[in-house]
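Components:
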Amino acid sequence: MDKSQYMDAFIEEARDNLQTVNTTLLQLEEQGYSADAMKEAYRIVHTIKGTAAVMGIEPISELSHVMEDLFDVLKGRAQAPTKEQMALLFAGLDTVERILDELGASGSTTISSKEIKEKIKAMLEEAKTDRVSADRSPRAVAEARFAISGDQRNQLLDAIKEGKRLVKLTACYSLDCKLKEGRAFQLVRNLSKMGVVISSLPAINEVKDEDGEISILLATQQDDEDLLHVAKNVTSIAEARIGEYDLPVEKGAEERKAPGTEAKGEPHGAATSIRVKAKLLDQLLDLVGEIMINNIRINQIASNLKNRELKQTLQSNARLMTDLQDIVLQTRMVPVDFIFKRFPRMVRDMAVESGKNIDFVMRGNDIEIDRSLLEEIGDALVHLLRNGVDHGLESKEQRAAAGKSPTGSLLLSAFQEQGNVVITVEDDGRGIDPAKVARKAVEKGIITQEEADRMDDRAKVNLVFLPGFSTAEKVTDISGRGVGMDVVKTKIQGLGGFVKIDTVAGKGTKFTLKLPPSMSIIRAMLIEVNREKYAIPLENVRETVRVDMTKVHELASKGMFRLRDEVLPVLNVHSEFGGLAAEQGEDVPAIIVEKNDNRACLLVSRLIGQQEIVVKNVGKDLRSTGYFSGATILGDGKVAMILDVGAFV
Amino acid sequence: MRRRREKMELTGDEEQIVSFRLGKETFAVKVAQVREIGKVQDITHIPKMPDYVEGVMNLRGQITTVIDLKKRFGIVSEAGAERTAQSRIIVAEIGDHQLGIIVDSVEDVMRVPRNSISPVPKTLSTGVQSSFLQGICKLQNKLIMLLDLGKMISDEGEMNMVMNASKTERAEA
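Structure:
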């Protein structure tokens, strides 16, 4: 058997599996022991071991073998990995990942997993002999989710509407407790007087004498103390604790606790989706673009022929084309989770490294975005998260001194806004101090003191986006190569989006990245300048007007035009592009463009109309003029450049 | 591509070249570097680019930069029209990059013995940068300057300015 042809598939699959184990481990670390999570981790490490053995990659198969053993022992003891075990397991996974990287790059590996393997082996021996269960924190007990039926959910939503809060009360039976079912029933009955009992875990009719505790989900308006009092008054209830309960969101809704539900996987997903090479999808899109262009051409020819049957066929064809285009664009959409899923592990490592406590929450993992866009923004997000951990969030001591909770919060969320995908990275740290930023910029010679003095706070904060500002930042080994804020900004703007900072001193900082949903097929306004056609993305077009040149006034050597209440700079694209001198007249076609809240009035030769265009990539050289963001092919087969409005406003 | 060329060199000990004219001079490129030759079609002019950059054209859906080789080399046109019915675009493809070059006419596709190609004499006086020349091919009745398109497209070359994006590169706009 020629193994090389299976290598890529193996690497890809193993990477996915690693990701799942990582997520599962994080879940175990955060929420304590869960039988499902342990089983999942064990199962997947087993798979990795098996496939690696088939491929003859011993460093991986041997390493995953000992990891599997460790999971097995822990699973058998219903125990989550201890801190040390966790560290070793993570290190083990990292080693496997490094080996995979090397395999992917060169087809063979020189990395030895021996050291880490021996360490885990030693740990394993220790764990085997260590009969006393080590750290059995209350959290180490099953944190399974309540099963909530549709009725119960409605009941619950009603309760929330009535202003009740949701709590989870967990009661431990005393050691000599008999007839636990009865006790559980009594507990539920008593609690019913305090609020609405939604569900219990285990269900009340499934309580067995082996159970150590029971959890009850309750919607109530009573205080925690009162509830605990009621619970403890039930005979044979030794201990009770209570906490707010976050309702697990239904599929499709937005919030999800970071490493949370991922591990369980979605078994039905396996059957309905398949892997397709990304390159094929790109080619498919290219082809659809080609067909669309041809179609426009055919339509032009058909309109001259005046054949009714042909016209009808073309109409139905047009509908099919639209559907095809929609579907092809959909195939390129992937949930942001595609890259978000690696962040919990990364933030955890950064938190450990910096000695900070961080509560990392992700929202909107299911928001979909064009795959190529997503790949492009990965580094930018890594940078913003690292920035949040390193600079945004304070140390425990500083937070305590500032009267904040010692655990810093870092929130990564994605949502949709008017057809755009918005991603925010938000921390509740110290915020950005405008004066400090300005001082640093002056020190680095990026701006002069006078310039700094003239700036308002907002402008000062935005200085962090200037090239050369963040070069002195230390580069941590976690995030690898550090990219500066300027790179983040350039990247996002290059993709047709923008970056915004909102910061409040002492309260935190929020970075907002706004991205176009897709960049492959867009609506555009076609214009003509110097006998060449150009396309302007419709999102940058505000309106088209006719400009009376006699009403254009010179102001600071710039033409200015008054449109209703607004004074707009007038740019003559002809002369800008080295064409003839400005057209004169009372009726010059013009287009009002805007980008990032800046507007300008562009004088053109002709306004042609709106059209859907397929965005084609052009070389860096063509983009380097700054005027063009890409090109497209028109119905007549000719190329039209896409204007980057940013060059004019 | 290089491998293919070497193979040919080994087996036949000869080089397959396409010869074309720029003004009065005859040039040639290796067939292995040519993707296709076509008539001059609609070219979209691009403002703010060097004058020898003719613009971009649609080559079956790919946006391809086109340069005018005569302007690039400063070769004076013979009297008459800039473009004639004989004008052609030679699309060169090296690795992932492609570039269209406009020539006055394409003459011939021929096999020449490798030993007929000699290094470029230092004294050669032509507008062509000698670094773009791969050699001089001496045939019975004429001399042909063999251009190295790879050099022209390659990273060090000045032509990097107009190098076209690769087909496989992701569509980013």
